[in-house]
Amino acid sequence: MKSKCEKCGMPATVHLTEIDGGQKVEKHLCQDCAAEEGIAIKANVPISQLLEDFILQAAPGSGEPDVEDEACPVCGISFSEYRQQGILGCPHDYDAFGQQLMPMIQRAQQGASQHVGKVPRRAGLDQKRQNQILRLRAELKGAVAAEDYEKAAELRDEIKALETQ
Amino acid sequence: MKLGDLTRHAGEWLRGVGPEQEVVISSRVRLARNLADRPFLSRCSTSQLEQLQQTLRDRILKLDVVDELFYVDIEAASSLDRALLVERHLISRQLAEAEHPCGVAISGNEKVAIMVNEEDHLRMQVLRSGLQLHDAIQEINRIDDALEQDLDFAYHCQLGYLTACPTNVGTGLRVSVMLHLPALKMTGEIDKAFRAARDMGLTIRGLYGEGTEATGDFFQLSNQTTLGKTEQQISEDFVDELIPRFIDYEHKARRALVESRSIAIDDKVSRALALLRSAKLISSQETLYLLSLTRMGVNLGRLPEIDLKTINELFLLTQPAHLQKIQGHKMDGRERAELRARIVRTRLSAN
Questions:
Q1: What is the percent of chain B with per-residue pLDDT over 70, rounded to a whole number?
Q2: Record: contact B157-A123, CB cut-off 8 A
Q3: CA–CA dist B75, B94 (Å, integer)
C-alpha cells in the first residue's frame, strides 16, 4: 500500500478503492487532501462507538423495518413515509415507531437516549424527580472519575433521598 | 409597530456591543415546541393550520414577559417583507418560503421572535448581541414557562419535548453563536478550526442559518445534539468551553497577522475602507467582504475614526430587501448597487 498522499506527498492516512466505469481506481490521500476532495472522515471515533453502530445496523428488528410497514393509528403516517420526508406526523409516532426510531435518535444524539432537561409543569412531579435522579447519577459518575469522593458521597445521599421519597 | 419601521435602525441585538464583541456578533437560542393534542404540521389540513395559528397567536400576544409584541401574518406578507425578516434573522428561510397559514410574533426590540407553524407548531428564539447565551436562555425559559401555563406541549418521559423532526427531541434547544473570523480565514487555519468544531459535536453554518454558505468570514456555530444534557449544560459548554476556544484561535491569528504582516494588513484594511468610501456601484457580496475587513481593522485599532456600531449597521442596511424597503419600491440589481454604494459612502465619510 502506498504510504504517501498522491496530492501533497504527506503520509497518506486515507485509502480509497472506487469502481469507476468498471475500472478499479485506488486513491491514497492525507487527511487534509481528503477533506478537500470532500471525503468526510470522522476523526477519533472510539472503537465502542464503531461497534455500537455496527451492531445497531446489523441487529434484526432495528433500523430498516423488513416487516410490514405499519401506519401510526393516530395520524396514519407509515414509517417509510417518514423516512422519505424526514418529518413525523404526530407525537404518538414516537411510540408507534419507537423500535425503529430509538436507534436512529441515539445515533444522531451521540448515544444519548434519555431526556434530562426541562420538564413541563404539567408532566407531573414524578417525571421531574426521575430526571433529577438521572442527572445526579451522571454527576456521581463524573465525581467518581475525578476521584472527588466527598462530592460523590454527597451525591449518593441525595440520590438515595430522592429514590425513597 | 410596522415592518417598515424596522429599517430605520439596527435591531437591538445587532448593535454589536456586547461581551466578546470583537469576535462574537450575536448569540441566539431557539426552542421547538408542539401542542400535545394536535398532529405535527405535515399532517394538518389547511383549516387545522389556521386554527392552530389563531390559538397560538392569541396566546403569544397575551405574553406579559415580552415587550411590544406584534404579529406578522407571513402568508399574507409580500416577498419583500419576508426577505426583510430573513435578513434581520427574525424568521427562517423555510418560513419565508411557506405558502400555508403561518406567522411570526416579534418584540419591539427584535430580541424575541416566535415563529408559528414553521417546522414545529412553535419555534421561539431569543437574540442577544455579543456572547450572552445565559441571559438568552433565561429569557426564553421565562417565555416557555408563561406559554406552558395555558398550553400543553407534547412531552415524552424518555425523549423529552417531542418535535416533528426526531433530531430536535429532548430539550428542543438549539444554541447558536455568530462569529466573525477574518484572521483565521486569512491565515488559512479556518479549516483546521472547523474540523475541531465538528469533532466537538458542533454544526457550522453560514450567515443565514440552515442550508446557507458561510460568506464574508461570518460563521454560525450550534449544538448538534439536543438530548441527554440539560439546557444549562448545553449553554455552559458553549460559553465556558467551546466558544472561548474559537475566540482564542481568532485572537491568536489576528496577533500573528499584526506581528508578521503589519504593513500588509494595514494596506488591506485601508484599501477596503477607501473602496467603500469611494465606490459608486457596489454588489452585496463585495460590500460584505470589504465591511468584514474594515470590521477587523476597527477591532485591531487600525481605524480609530470608524466605530463598530456603524459597521454593524451597514452589514444590515446594505442587504437587498433592506435597500428596497428604505427606498420604498422594488429595484433591480443595478439600482440597488447604486443606492448601496451611496449609503455606504455617506455613512463612512460622516463617521
A1: 93
A2: yes
A3: 12
Per the listing, cell 424596522 goes with: B6
In whole angstroms, what is the distance from residue B101 CA to residue B118 CA?
Answer: 10
Cell of B112: 424575541
The residue of chain A with its CA nearest to that of B158 is: A114
Q: Give the residue, A163 or B299, on which the prediction is more confident.
A: B299
**Residues of chain B found within 8 Å of residue A111, distances taken between Cβ atoms:** 228
Grid cell listed for B127? 437574540
Q: How far is residue B210's CA from residue B222's CA, in Å, rounded to a whole number?
A: 11
B237 residue type, one letter: D
**Residue B33, SS3 per DSSP:** strand
Cβ proximity of B6 and B68 under 8 Å: no
- Tell me: the pLDDT tens digits for B40-86? 999 999 999 999 999 999 999 999 999 889 999 999 999 999 999 99
CA distance A22 to chain B (A): 34
How far apart CA B186 and CA B300 sit, in angstroms, is 15
The ipTM (two decimal places) reads: 0.85
Residue of chain B with shortest Cα separation from A45: B199
Beta bridge partners of B155: B161
Single-letter amino acid, residue B210: E
Q: How many residues are listed for chain A in this entry?
A: 165
State pTM to two decimals: 0.79
Q: Which three cell numbers stand for residue A93?
A: 409516532
Strand partners, A28: A15
Contacts of B138 (CB under 8 A, 6+ apart): none
B137 in Cβ contact with B143 (< 8 Å): no
